[in-house]
Design a protein that fits this description.
Layout lengths: L1 H21 L13 E5 L10 H9 L4 E2 L8 H13 L5 E7 L1 H9 L5 E9 L8 H6 L11 E4 L2 E4 L4 H6 L4 H9 L4 E2 L16 E7 L7 H10 L3 E5 L5 H4 L1 H12 L1
Parallel strand pairs: 1-2, 1-3, 3-4, 4-8, 8-9
Antiparallel strand pairs: 5-6, 6-7
Helix pairs in contact: 2-10, 3-4
Length: 257
């Protein structure tokens, strides 16, 4: 009889535990921490180009890092960003715009805990390719001698050409501010070969800006399909983070899942 009562008591205690765990007001298991979203800007801009996306992600409590890219060429820029990424603990989502796509592809092959890559109107290279080569394989880019100029080894976009290349219908004053504060890139960077293809085991997402006049939309589609990326087409100019921040954040949400 004593053993039977002991067994019944054990069952009652176990049942009480189950009921308690399922009772209203009891906290559920803590949610998995969100990955850090690393936003890598492209040529002729700085991290402020990501501001509309950064604000939305921070409001959703994502950890965000938007580093300043030196724009000194692929090898130099990757070396600079590598130290920043190595200091970020836990899983990471790398998001690249334009030239930044070259950099996140290289970084993905040498950085731990990269869970996904998001290419936002960006190059998606394979090893041995250059930005200039990728941009010339389809018609439609306005980048050239008539829209850019050099100061020593550095390449700038002409202020008058900045709206058509990047911004389309975005507010004229905002575009003028971006043009005035643009970051030049070494002209030689466009002829520097990549050394790595993004690993096949990392999930990839691509936003194709259908009104892009810096990188031809056909090039963005071709590279995304070749990389087996999930493709989202967006009615946007090249400055997709400013023109369609909601679309960019939606794809980042998919990447984090």
């Amino acid at each position: 009889m004593k053993h039977a009562l002991t067994a019944l008591a054990a069952v009652a205690i176990a049942g009480a535990g189950v009921l308690t765990a399922a009772s209203p007001g009891v906290a559920a298991a803590p949610a998995r921490p969100k990955p850090t979203v690393v936003l890598v800007h492209g040529a002729f801009e700085d991290a402020s180009a990501w501001a509309p996306v950064t604000r939305r992600l921070l409001a959703e409590h994502y950890p965000v890092v938007a580093p300043a890219v030196p724009l000194r060429g692929i090898a130099a820029d990757v070396a600079s960003l590598q130290g920043i990424l190595d200091a970020v603990p836990g899983p990471k989502i790398l998001v690249g715009h334009s030239y930044g796509g070259l950099l996140i592809s290289e970084l993905a092959s040498r950085t731990a805990d990269v869970r996904a890559l998001v290419y936002a109107a960006a190059f998606i290279p394979e090893a041995g390719e250059t930005a200039g080569q990728l941009n010339a394989q389809f018609p439609g880019s306005l980048i050239g001698p008539s829209t850019t100029h050099t100061v020593g080894p550095e390449l700038f976009v002409n202020a008058a050409s900045y709206p058509s290349l990047f911004a389309a219908e975005l507010p004229a004053l905002d575009t003028a501010v971006a043009a005035a504060g643009q970051r030049p890139i070494l002209a030689a960077a466009f002829d520097e070969k990549t050394t790595a293809t993004a690993p096949a085991g990392i999930r990839k997402y691509a936003l194709v800006a259908t009104r892009d006049q810096a990188i031809p939309p056909a090039a963005e589609r071709f590279e995304a399909r070749r990389a087996h990326a999930s493709i989202t087409e967006v009615d946007s100019p090249h400055a997709i983070a400013s023109a369609a921040p909601g679309a960019v954040v939606d794809v980042i949400h998919r990447a984090t899942r």
